[in-house]
Amino acid sequence: MADEIKTDESPQHRNTFTGYDDINEGEKSCVSYVSTKEPDTYEEVILPDSMDFSRYGGRGQEGVNSTVNYGHQYGMFPIGTCGWIKPDSKGIIAKTFFSQKTQAGIDAFNLVTEAALRGWSIGFWVKEMVSLEKEPERFKELAKENKLAKEGYDAIITKGVLAEYSLCNLQSNPGAVLHARDIVKSPEFLARLEVEELAEKVKFLNNIVLMLKSSVDKIGEPVEGELLEADNKDFTELAEKVTKAEHEIRTLHATILTLKRQPSKQPEILAGKIEEMVRKTLSELSGEIRQRRGKLD
User: Fold this and answer.
1) pLDDT digits over 56-71, tens only?
2) Cβ-based burial of 134 (10 A; exposed 0-12, middle 13-18, buried ≥19)
3) Are 216 and 136 within one domain?
4) CB count, 10 Å around CB of 141?
5) Domain, as residue range, for 119
6) In a shared domain, residues 247 and 131
7) Among candidates 182, 179, 190, 202, which has minimal Cα distance to 257?
8) Among 48, 95, 242, 297, which lies 20 to 30 A Cα-Cα from 185?
9) CA atoms of 175 and 193, how far apart (whole Å)
10) How far apart are CA 11 and CA 126, in angstroms?
11) Opening angle at CA 263, ends 13 and 73, nearest 5
């Protein structure tokens, strides 16, 4: 099966927030689920026994990769190695040994013991997937056989090849990044964490724009018949500003993806730009919406 993989295709990534079952201070290790059969943010479920481990396994196994990274950053020094990895009824569980030879490995273990980073993510190639839309009967059978959740997903991954797994920060847990920055000493690791923090700010700004856009839509509803021509012009200008902000968010998001591959001092510059956009969005757009509402009252 592994030979069928196209080498020019990057592995897919799926995050899970499971914490740790066992942390060993003496050997600098932890045991944790790196994947579970709960629905993920892609609205998919990965069956625990679906993975082919022929390319990835515990350290000491000949011919397989056993490195553990942070955030799937393959250009960064590994933070440790996999002691063993296996599927069970709940998901895929692994034992991770954190390197004490690099600052990134030391920082990673400190973050684990502080519970500042509690997420894991697997990188894998999908070989077979069952879709609810295309194969409803088989989908329902698999869901029943494997005792999966009743909702929250529309596809089940039944075959895949594991490439690696990584310690990661989840976007639903921004406080972890802020706390992590007080612990980390490795410049390279810190740069990665800063990128994650920037991604959180973009997400925050995006939520603001969505909220404002909803307000714009409500303002645009006719009041007692038709909108006055002047009011309609104000509404149009406001809507255009929201659209422009959305475009800037997409541009910033693309920049962050680049920074994830090559972190540098740029995050500090980008952070300032994001902060400025947030302030502008809150003060100008919100202010204009209040004025616009006042005209319609």
Assistant:
1) 999 888 888 999 998 8
2) exposed
3) no
4) 12
5) 2-185
6) no
7) 202
8) 95
9) 11
10) 8
11) 25
162-177 residue pLDDT tens: 999 988 875 333 444 4
So what's the pLDDT on residue 181?
Answer: 60
Q: Which of 255, 231, 245 is nearest to 283 (CA)?
A: 245
Amino acid sitting at position 121:
S
| Token pair listed for 27 | 């050997």
Q: Are strands 119-131 and 51-52 parallel, antiparallel or unpaired?
A: unpaired
pLDDT band at 200 (very low <50, low <70, confident <90, very high): low
Residue 90 · residue 98 · CB < 8 Å: no
* Residues 260, 194: Cα–Cα separation, whole Å: 10
Q: Are residues 11 and 151 in the same domain?
A: yes
> For residue 127, what pLDDT is reported?
92
Q: Band of the pLDDT at 148, cuts 50, 70, 90?
A: very high
Verdict on whether the full-model pTM lies above 0.70: no
Place 297 in a pLDDT band, splitting at 50, 70 and 90. low
The Cα 149–Cα 130 span in angstroms is: 15
Query: Which residues have a Cβ under 8 Å from the Cβ of 19 and sit 6 or more positions away?
Result: 32, 115, 118
Domain count, the chain: 2
**Residue 97 CA: distances (Å) to CA of 29, 31, 78, 80, 233:** 4, 9, 11, 5, 62
Boundary-marking domain end, from 118, 150, 185: 185
What is the spatial distance between Cα 167 and Cα 120, in angstroms, rounded to a whole number?
Answer: 5
Question: Which is higher by pLDDT, 137 or 207?
Answer: 137
- 175 and 251 part of one domain: no
